[in-house]
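User: Design a sequence. Structure:
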């Protein structure tokens, strides 16, 4: 079989690529190892409850992206972000640095005192790593007790091992006045970086992809195993072989490199330096609506495995049966780092101990694993991914999407990364 434009991966990026060709009147074929589309944007259903693969909401600004989303699922539910943090049993509004009100007077004093002692930074100075950036921004006490702890849980690295270019607007940098104001009152303005977030009224996050999937030629259960760039052929785990005119890949860069023959050692070495977080989502179905009222919350405590919790049923009531609710907890670690029982004890079990949920309300739990979550911004990332992408481009493989660009792309950016290929 021969196709002109072969697209690897039916995540939002791969579907965006296929949709771009469709809009231009050109044909393409998408191959996907799973039996459905969506990748990280997929949703799954169990006994009338729907869960996404980690928390997903859209804050897309681009008209062309929002047009596709609206065509897919009509009007979306809008949420005004107001996340919280769970810190030593206290509910602290997010971001914690300017919402310290619930903390003890003693701890607030320590944080403010260290905040005031921060070194003055000139425009030219650049922090060596994320830990230094955190200490410069927030002072030592806050840095050590909040983001440095969270970094280990979310990024699976010490803050000192990370670069800082990815931070951008993601972490709020308050003034001293804002920190002090947040110590004295709970009534602080919302300073989260996205002003509103949207979610399909029905069908879970995956519903946003329907328009693209409807116009795509997708071959499911086609797991790419080998790529022959000379003869322009891709071989699959099911024994099929497809010849292509042009090849576009949204698969993780290290995986693509492993599918090629005779890769120069410096390229293989570069690919081995590209690291990504992986993790488990632990989903909880509850026969009550009595759950914390926050759409999502971060957990700083190290004795709770999850870094973040969110509620699919608060994202959309359509995600749970009448009178029920749901939560999903995110634990970042390598596959097999914990047994299923350890995962449940360290997440669901801890919420029960803290009185956040009641054991008798639990209908079922589910544990799922994602091998690729976020790319990690360790020191070699920029040079290594350039080496790998340049090599693949020279071999005629165009890489795109979150793991093809190897970047911190949101869904709208991943979609555009694919859509723009045909422009
Ligand atoms: C924890 C977390 C939370 C997030 N929250 C948000 C959010 O709230 N809002 C937002 O906008 N973005 C969010 N994102 C980002 C978003 O998930 C990504 O930008 C987007 O899903 C990436 O899409 P993609 O198509 O590039 O990659 P993927 O979704 O990974 O798609 C790649 C596809 O390739 C397939 N594949 C892999 N290997 C093979 C193979 N060998 N053969 C064939 N097929 C293969 C996979 O099955 C998959 O379908 C979040 C990401 C994470 C990890």
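Assistant: Done.
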């Amino acid at each position: 079989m021969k196709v002109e434009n072969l697209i690897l991966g039916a995540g939002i990026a791969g579907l965006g690529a296929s949709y771009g060709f469709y809009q231009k009147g050109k044909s393409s074929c998408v191959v996907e190892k799973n039996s459905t589309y969506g990748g990280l944007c997929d949703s799954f259903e169990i006994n009338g409850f729907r869960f996404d693969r980690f928390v997903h909401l859209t804050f897309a600004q681009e008209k062309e992206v929002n047009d596709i989303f609206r065509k897919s699922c009509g009007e979306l539910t809008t949420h005004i972000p107001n996340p919280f943090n769970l810190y030593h049993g206290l509910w602290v509004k997010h971001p914690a640095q300017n919402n310290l009100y619930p903390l003890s007077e003693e701890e607030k004093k320590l944080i403010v005192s260290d905040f005031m002692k921060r070194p003055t930074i000139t425009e030219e100075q650049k922090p060596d790593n994320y830990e230094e950036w955190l200490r410069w921004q927030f002072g030592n006490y806050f840095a050590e007790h909040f983001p440095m702890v969270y970094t280990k849980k979310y990024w699976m690295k010490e803050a000192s091992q990370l670069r800082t270019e990815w931070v951008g607007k993601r972490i709020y940098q308050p003034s001293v006045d804002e920190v002090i104001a947040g110590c004295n009152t709970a009534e602080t303005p919302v300073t989260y970086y996205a002003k509103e977030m949207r979610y399909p009224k029905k069908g879970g996050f995956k519903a946003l992809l329907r328009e693209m999937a409807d116009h795509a030629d997708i071959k499911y259960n086609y797991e790419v195993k080998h790529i022959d760039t000379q003869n322009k052929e891709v071989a699959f785990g099911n024994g099929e072989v497809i010849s292509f005119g042009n090849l576009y890949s949204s698969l993780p860069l290290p995986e693509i490199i492993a599918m090629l023959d005779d890769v120069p050692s410096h390229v293989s070495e570069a690919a081995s330096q590209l690291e990504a977080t992986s993790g488990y989502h632990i989903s909880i179905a509850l026969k009550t609506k009595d759950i914390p009222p926050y759409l999502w919350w971060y957990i700083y405590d190290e004795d709770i495995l999850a870094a973040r919790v969110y509620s699919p049923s608060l994202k959309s009531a359509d995600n749970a049966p009448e009178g029920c609710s749901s939560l999903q907890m995110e634990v970042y670690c390598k596959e097999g780092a914990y047994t299923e029982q350890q995962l449940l004890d360290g997440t669901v079990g801890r919420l029960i101990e803290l009185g956040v949920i009641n054991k008798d309300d639990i209908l079922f739990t589910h544990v799922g694993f994602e091998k690729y979550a976020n790319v990690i911004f360790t020191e070699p990332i920029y040079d290594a991914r350039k080496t790998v992408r340049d090599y693949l481009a020279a071999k005629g493989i165009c890489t795109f999407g979150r793991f093809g660009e190897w970047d911190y792309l949101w869904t709208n950016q991943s979609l555009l990364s694919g859509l723009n290929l045909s422009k």
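Residues 84-184 form one domain. Residues 8-14, 31-34, 39-41, 54-58, 223-224, 250-251, 255, 372-374, 401-403, 409-412, 414 surround flavin-adenine dinucleotide (CB under 6 Å).
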